[in-house]
Specification:
The complex is a heterodimer of chains A (292) and B (251).
Chain A (H helix, E strand, L loop, with lengths): L3 H33 L7 H6 L3 E2 L6 E2 L2 H32 L2 H16 L2 H20 L7 H25 L3 H9 L4 H12 L1 H17 L2 H6 L17 H8 L8 H36 L1
Antiparallel strand pairs in A: 1-2
Helix pairs in contact in A: 1-12, 3-6, 3-9, 4-6, 5-6, 6-9, 7-8, 9-12, 11-12
Chain B lengths: L3 E12 L2 E12 L3 E5 L6 H8 L9 E9 L2 E2 L6 H7 E4 L10 H11 L5 H14 L3 H4 L12 H13 L5 E5 L7 H14 L4 E5 L3 H7 L2 E6 L2 E7 H6 L4 H7 L5
Parallel strand pairs in B: 3-8, 3-9, 6-7, 7-8
Antiparallel strand pairs in B: 1-2, 1-4, 4-5, 9-10
Helix pairs in contact in B: 3-4, 3-6, 4-6
Classes of the chains: A mainly alpha (292), B alpha/beta (251).
Chain lengths: 292, 251
């Protein structure tokens, strides 16, 4: 016979456990319900690969290819900047920095994560955009490049701390074994430590991508928001997230525009789901190997 | 007159304020197996790790004194990476790198610039043979080293150490996790290696020192109590504490 108190606690914990799954399913169902309505009048192909996003023209055109490419371009740029920097920073923090400096650096990186994205966007507008405008001699500094740079800062903390964790969790004996054979510290890092931490590094990159793809406020502020097919880092682009954020307030409920924004939401959901799945796979592959 | 491979003079090692090794002074002779016995916390491992400067990896350690390898001061006159190539170490826990058997052995030579495939294969085969494991692994050199048994992994680690052509091999309780048969195989490999290498064996197993070493040193609380021919240490020890330890009265 269970005591009633135990019974209540047990059920409460169970409820919290399944709540997150329930919420995800409900959110996805709602997205689907609203978003799929668009495809009553619009073909999926024209939506995904259409080159024109003119939601309030008559007739409206809902091609999100420029938005998808805008997101990809900004994300790609951010990752190209953030991964080498993040990897180097993580190696420094985990392997090279003296203990006292390590603590300072780690809290600094965590602090970077605590900066609200809107503040980063604000700083981007005030300092980065004019700077880019001058050095590249552009009509406006609000470009894909500006977005990539600001987002790289946003992804850095995630990337650094996950890579750092995976480097620290490489067994000490590997390093000792390598050093004992006369390897230098650097040889040990790139021949033993990094390969052993590779699954964590891949997961960090994936989660960094996830953070960047889903980011809205900063990109809305500094990428210039022109829904045109992107051809260069030095032109304004518009991302999927920024489109929803900018237009949701004006879209008439029940209109094609409104449904199209929800359909964009589905696309985003699918993208981040895939990215998270990949990151999870890399992390678990790493753990599985270590257990063996 | 026997040649001395390693000379230790006034060696002290501290961890913060605690002195782990006190005023050690003795020699390791060329091509001998020197056994080091003593209870835990007697400084055996610290001493061993000092001989190839692995102890420096502990950030709070401090070393004073002189260790000469072939007459050269290892702290001043030899690059520490070269020293570690010359003075190899086999750890208590056999821990191969997460690579194949072949790559584990080839790791060291590759570090030191051997690139040619034929030459690497030759080094790998020679090292595995010398560590008495070649026959057991020759058909599966490309499988992961973790698939091997504990005893095999430890001999693989010995092979890995041999592959960089050291002059001295240090063993830090190499058989502590192994069964008697694996232990015997490693001791046999050590006897074979005596022709070409000077070996220092730290062991918690007194009987192993009696079986495997030519001379034995007894460490206690960071000091060396006694060193001598293994036969004499185990039959007529000069110091009462040595006698107590080897007969199992304390430790």
């Amino acid at each position: 016979m269970k005591r009633p108190f135990e019974y209540i606690i047990e059920k409460l914990v169970l409820l919290s456990g399944i709540a997150s799954i329930v919420f995800v399913v409900l959110i996805f169902a709602f997205l689907l319900k609203e978003g799929l309505s668009l495809f009553a009048n619009e073909s999926v192909f024209a939506f995904l690969f259409g080159r024109n996003w003119y939601p309030i023209s008559d007739p409206p055109q809902f091609g999100i290819l420029p938005l998808i490419l805008g997101s990809l371009l900004v994300t790609f740029g951010a990752i190209v900047i953030a991964v080498p920097l993040g990897l180097a920073a993580a190696i420094y923090v985990a392997e090279i920095a003296p203990l006292w400096l390590r603590d300072i650096l780690k809290s600094g990186i965590e602090l970077l994560a605590a900066i609200p994205s809107i503040v980063l966007g604000f700083i981007g507008i005030v300092t980065l955009a004019p700077f880019l405008k001058t050095i590249f001699n552009l009509p406006s500094g609000l470009t894909a490049l500006a977005g990539s740079i600001m987002l790289a800062f946003m992804a850095m903390p995630t990337i650094v701390s996950i890579i750092e964790d995976s480097i620290v969790s490489v067994p000490k004996n590997y390093k000792e074994g390598s050093l004992a054979l006369g390897a230098t510290r650097w040889q040990t890092i790139y021949r033993v430590t990094l390969p052993a931490a590779s699954s964590g590094i891949l997961a960090a990159i994936m989660l960094g991508i996830g953070r960047v793809v889903g980011e809205t406020m900063a990109v809305l502020m500094i990428t210039g928001n022109a829904a045109v097919m992107p051809v260069s880092f030095l032109q304004p682009v518009r991302t999927l997230t920024a489109t929803i954020a900018a237009e949701m307030g004006e879209a008439v409920g029940g209109s094609g525009h409104y449904y199209a924004l929800f359909a964009i939401g589905i696309v985003l959901f699918v993208i981040s789901f895939i990215i998270n799945l990949l990151a999870d796979m890399f992390l678990h592959r790493g753990r599985g190997r270590k257990r063996r | 007159m026997v040649a001395n491979k390693i000379e230790i003079k006034d060696l002290n090692v501290w961890y913060e304020d605690a002195r782990a090794i006190r005023d050690l002074a003795f020699n390791v002779e060329l091509n001998e197996i020197l056994g080091i016995i003593g209870p835990s916390n007697s400084g055996k491992t610290s001493f061993l790790r000092t001989l190839n400067r692995m102890n420096e990896l502990y950030p709070n350690s401090r070393t004073e004194g002189v260790v000469l390898l072939d007459g050269r001061n290892i702290f001043r006159e030899i690059d520490k990476h070269l020293l570690r190539k010359k003075v190899g170490i086999v750890f208590a826990l056999p821990l191969p790198l997460p690579l194949s058997i072949f790559d584990n052995v080839a790791y060291g030579p590759r570090l030191h610039g051997v690139k040619q495939k034929g030459q690497l294969a030759e080094i790998v085969e020679r090292s595995l043979k010398a560590a008495a494991i070649w026959d057991e692994v020759k058909d599966r050199l490309n499988t992961g080293a973790f698939k091997l048994s504990g005893g095999q992994q430890q001999r693989l680690c010995i092979a890995r150490t041999l592959a960089v052509e050291p002059e001295v091999i240090l063993y830090d309780e190499p058989c502590s996790g192994l069964d008697p048969i694996s232990t015997l195989k490693i001791e046999e490999a050590m006897q074979e290696l005596k022709k070409n290498y000077t070996q220092v064996l730290v062991t918690n197993n007194v009987k192993q020192a009696a079986r495997a070493s030519d001379r034995t040193a007894f460490f206690l609380m960071g000091e060396m109590v006694e060193i001598g021919e293994t036969k004499e240490i185990f039959t007529v020890p000069k110091d009462k504490r040595t006698e107590d330890y080897i007969t199992g009265r304390f430790g």
